[in-house]
Amino acid sequence: MTDTDIAGAPQIDTPPEPSRPHWALRRLWWPARNLWRSLTSMRTALVLLFLLALAAIPGALLPQRELNEQKTLAYIADHGTLGEWMDRVQLFDVFSSTWFTAIYVLLFVSLVGCLTPRMIEHFHSLRTKPVAAPRNLKRLPRHVVYEVDGDPEDIAARISGNLRGWRRVISIRPSASSGATRSAGGNASAASGGGATRSAGGVVEVSAEKGYLREFGNLVFHFALLALLVSIAVGKLYGYEGTRSLVADGEQGLCNTSTAVYDSFRAGNLVDGTDLSPFCFRIDSFDATFLPSGQPDMYTADVRYTEGVTQTDPSTWQTTTIRVNEPLRIAGDRVYVLGNGFAPTFTVTFPNGEKRTQTVLFVPDELQTMLSSGAARFDTPAGLYPNEDERRKHQIALEGLFAPTASFQGTLLQSSGPEPKDPYVAIRIYEGDTGLDTGKPQNVYSLDQTLVDQGRLTRQAQVNLAMGQSKTLPDGTVVSFDGYQRWVSVQVSHDPAQVWVLVSAIAMLGGLLVSLLIRRRRIWARLTPVTAQISGDADSPNTTERRTVVEIAGLARTDQAGWGEGFEEQAAGLLTDPDDPAGRPRKRLTRRL
Questions:
Q1: Which of 537, 436, 531, 429 is closest to 480 using CA atoms?
Q2: For 268-288, how does the pLDDT look when each residue is reduced to its tens digit (9 = 90+)?
Q3: For the chain, does the N or the C end have fewer beta carbons within 10 angstroms?
Q4: What Å distances lie between residue 168 and 98, 470, 588, CA to CA?
């Protein structure tokens, strides 16, 4: 009976509207899930790795503030507005910038999210049995069929024994009933009346697979990449680098006790400079060899060092030699030789006979000839000018060039080679206020030009001096060039994660080689028993012989794991009896490659 309304029309029951998911699922959970799936995909990880390499390019092409702030500021000033905008987007602080850190962290998260499921999946695959044989082996790229003597169980054991190193399993299933007959000659016939009929015994299948290490190597490579990123991050957080220029005279040294002992110091975010590795060293001598073209060939520094900062006699310190790529390793730190130059020695004799001597570092302007420039400042002796204003008016400043092998173009000093065969200096001698009492930082390699422009420093002479020569100023002050010393620029580096960076890099290489060299392959063998009837003559009756039809098929899991032309020989080798290596399958029925 159908329900009707007042007018007699039937009422149709409408299905209830499906309930809408909660707004939190639609607005929060689903977008977050999709975002996580996209972030943890291998494609995203590759894109982020490419972006990380791309983002590092400005750090290699542009001056970086943490390495050379003066050069960075000069670059910004030379490029005006463009330089200011580049500074705003942190192109001069690439490796500590917000955007570089974001790419780094996203790559780290992507690798973790991508590799964890793959590791779990690979662990499960190691516990599973090889895949069962497909129903139709003839469809596989590699397929051969043999007929051999013996029972399927014995032949299957023989095949399994010859598959050493493969994960394999033997299974038995009932054979499909078939009225087909096979003659002793091997031609299939349905109505021959004689020959070999398929037995009613079970069909034996052998499934084997190898190459599981390929995926393991792939996982090792990616986890090693992850470990490399972590190691680099830890090294940046807890590491530090300091540079210092030392005169190689055996007197000037460095003790790693404070950041103040360095000319420049760059520390990680978690380094405050209070727990530096304690050690001291001095440069006794330095030698540089050059190629005929003037290019440096080798730097060699003879060093005395001691671990700890105890006040011991330097003559009892250990000695070693530092060369290029052969640093001094001490207290977990490394001491490198970065550069070198010449430090001329000047003596200023004031009118009262008192002397002031300085050995000042000159910076090479031309690396092939080692033509160097620098400056020196000399304060007047105490008591010579009791009035402070008068004393400031008689300070001496020098600025000029040093040529290890002098050559002249008129009076212009040049250098013809980097080796000190005929050292000369070309200096301008100034008298006046050198700015030593102002308390303002000054460039140690050049004079403050504003002091010259303001007339506070006045030029008294300009002269070329060989070793031992001097110049006398009008007030009786004598400036002499006494000789030179070699100076060395050293860098002290501390990276607590450097061993892990090396281990991670080696693991990456090993995993990559395993993933490229290991081949992932599968092979199946289906053994079907047959009974062959052999016709006799009048003297001997008909006999039956137990035989097995063996189908062997192979499949490569990757494009690089192709079988080539050797599959047939390998398949025949699986059927070879170890006790009779010369034995081969009696007859090959079909062949498909």
A1: 429
A2: 888 887 888 889 999 999 988
A3: N
A4: 53, 93, 24
Q: Which two tokens stand for residue 24?
A: 């939190």
Same domain, 486 and 360: yes
Q: How far is CA 247 from the centre of its chain?
A: 35
- Name the amino acid, one letter, at 126: L
What span, in angstroms and rounded, lies between the C-alpha atoms of 79 and 82? 6
Instruction: Tell me the pLDDT tens digit for each residue of 334-388.
Output: 999 888 899 999 999 998 889 999 999 999 988 888 899 999 999 888 777 878 7
Q: What ranges make up the beta strands (E) of 433-516?
A: 457-466, 470-472, 478-494
Are both 437 and 390 inside the same structural domain? yes
User: What does DSSP assign to residue 217?
Assistant: H
Dist CA 368 CA 434 (whole Å): 32
Report CA-CA distances (Å) from 393 to 433, 435, 445, 446, 545.
5, 11, 22, 19, 123
Residue 153 is part of which domain span?
A: 137-210+521-592
Alpha-carbon distances of 379 from 19, 446, 477, rounded to whole Å: 91, 16, 13
Phi and psi at residue 499, to the nearest 5°: -65, -40
- Measured CA to CA, the distance from residue 304 to residue 281 in angstroms comes to 5
Structure tokens at 86: 């580049």
Q: Rounded to an integer, what distance in angstroms lies between the CA atom of residue 403 and that of residue 370?
A: 7
Q: Are 145 and 270 contained in the same domain?
A: no
CA distances from 123 to 113, 117, 128, 335, 555 (A): 16, 10, 9, 45, 22
| Residue 184 per-residue DSSP state | T
| Burial tier of 361 (Cβ tally within 10 Å: 0-12, 13-18, 19+) | buried
Global pTM reads 0.64
